[in-house]
Write a structure and sequence with these properties.
The chain is α/β, with parallel strands linked by helices. 42% of the residues lie in helices and 21% in strands. The protein has a 6-stranded mixed beta sheet with strand order 6-7-8-3-9-10, with helices on both faces.
Length: 386
Amino acid sequence: MDTRSESGTRTAEAGAMSSQERAASAPDPATPETERETGEVRLDDDEVDDEVDDEVDDEVTEEVETTSAVDAARRIAADQPLIAVQGLVKHYGEIRAVDSIEFEVRRGDVLAFLGPNGAGKTTAMKMITGFLEPDSGSARVCGMDVSRHPIEIRRRIGYLPENAPSYGDMTVAAFLDFIAEARGLDDRPAAVARAMARTGLESVAGQVIETLSKGYKRRVGLAQALIHDPEVLILDEPTDGLDPNQKELVHQLIANLATTKSILISTHILDEAERICNRVVILSQGKILVDSTPAALVERAPGHNVVVITFDGDVPERVLGRLRQHEWCESAGMLEDGRLEIRPRAGQNRLAEILSAVEDQAVRDVKVREGRLEDLFREVTKGVAA
């Protein structure tokens, strides 16, 4: 089609418009130029202010609603476990290092991982902190899946690994300042000072790390785990290499921190677990064998509530017969040193019945033994290679 003839037709049609039509379609000279070009309606100043106020009100309402939702989520999260592990599995070749373990750690809990060497304690900790990918199962920290939110999880966790890395040529203070900077902390000097005070490092703040003793190096590792005041602490043998005084300092620190945090530790020191932890998990060959409180485990331990009696003179056979006739009596017999030992079944407290059975004898001394966590540990892990 000829473009020129088409254009001429349009021109002719336009020229055919009456003078009245052209006048009606012409823009009003009083209308501002921008309005004529865009065809938009211009608002006066009062109308603009009203519209802006409405937008601000909407934004404020949305922000308040969002804040309320966040606060509600935080309130819900406060009632949830800070660590939740479900069906966690990890293989190293043919070895099943962690075998479908499940447990939770809530705020205020200090949970101890106990187990023989190679039980899977360190491997489990590495998966919970996001440093090792599980083959299956899940670990959640502060309500978030570790596999999906590894960076955010690491902001919430303080982790002391088995061999805590550091820069040996840096001083203690410089290294902790480096960690604070890497974590993006605002007030680095205050964070460093607080971490050193908590771990008793002020006296070696200016000392090069490689010149420190093993115990002090361990405390530097603990300080870097605490420096950002995390909600969750995961500490792999935190008192390894510490002298008794240093261990006491760390025990007190953990007890103080536990009021607002969830703490998971591994240790080979059974007395330590019994003293500072309110939960104990015993692992062996990657499986959880026991999950209970230290007090409950002591009651389950062999030898709990065993009664040993010292007499003036020999014990008649009829006394042994009285004791052995009771269903609760597992055994009653004489020790090599001449004392009488009575073992109630399942650690029952049968002291009253025992004293009644020997009331006609000249009793010199009575001792009641308590179970030991070490004895239970040996019993449940029996046959596991070290």
